[in-house]
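Dear H.,

Thanks for agreeing to be a second pair of eyes. The structure we're designing against is below in token form, covering all 204 positions.
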């Protein structure tokens, strides 16, 4: 899987309201980490708006938007959840969810009207949110013999690494640090080319 250097998300909760033919559509956007995290927040929103006609939603999670789900919550099929999801996708933000709470105003909007209303409510709340960029880092754990770690310290500065820990056990050192994904492959090559280090890596 291709490793991204960064992704965009939001760091707080935002709300925006849209009126359409008497109905009120309240868009709520908030950060999520995974599906279980989203479900907890959805329960809270339903308790906050218990008398609403519908709580339609969509969420995207994963640095590469690999998890995408939506719900029409008893509105006609594909008239609410999918329009909300399309707005999230077009904004290119991830690890976030939108719930659009609808209070029915007495006039039927029809499927085209619902698609437009839910999509517009989602677009409105996205516009109100502050979008932040999150850098993607790779974490390396390197083991070797002292004093071979001199090269590592040089590379820490060269690649602006974040040193997590560096300690010694007799003549052996264990070093844990993070580096931006854009620099990870080059640094990995330098470490392995030395042939005196053991390397483990993970995405953080």
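And this is the sequence the design step returned. I haven't edited it by hand at all.
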């Amino acid at each position: 899987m291709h490793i991204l250097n960064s992704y965009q998300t939001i760091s707080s909760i935002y709300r925006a309201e849209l009126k359409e033919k008497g109905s009120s559509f309240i868009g709520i956007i908030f950060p999520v980490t995974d599906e279980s995290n989203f479900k907890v927040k959805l329960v809270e929103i339903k308790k906050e708006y218990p008398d609403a006609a519908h709580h339609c939603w969509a969420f995207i999670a994963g640095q590469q938007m690999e998890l995408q789900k939506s719900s029409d919550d008893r509105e006609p099929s594909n008239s609410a959840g999918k329009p909300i999801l399309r707005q999230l996708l077009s904004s290119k933000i991830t690890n976030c969810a939108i719930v659009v709470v609808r209070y029915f105003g007495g006039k039927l909007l029809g499927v085209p009207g619902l698609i437009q209303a839910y999509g517009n409510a989602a677009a409105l709340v996205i516009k109100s949110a502050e979008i932040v960029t999150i850098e993607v880092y790779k974490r390396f754990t390197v083991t070797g013999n002292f004093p071979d770690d001199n090269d590592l310290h040089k590379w820490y500065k060269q690649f602006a690494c974040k040193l997590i820990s560096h300690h010694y056990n007799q003549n052996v050192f264990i070093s844990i640090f993070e580096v931006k994904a854009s620099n990870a492959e080059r640094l990995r090559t330098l470490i392995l080319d030395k042939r005196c280090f053991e390397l483990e890596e993970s995405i953080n």
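Two observations from my side: The mean pLDDT is 90. Residues 6-133 form a domain with the Ribosomal Protein S5; domain 2 fold (CATH 3.30.230.30).

Warmly,
E.
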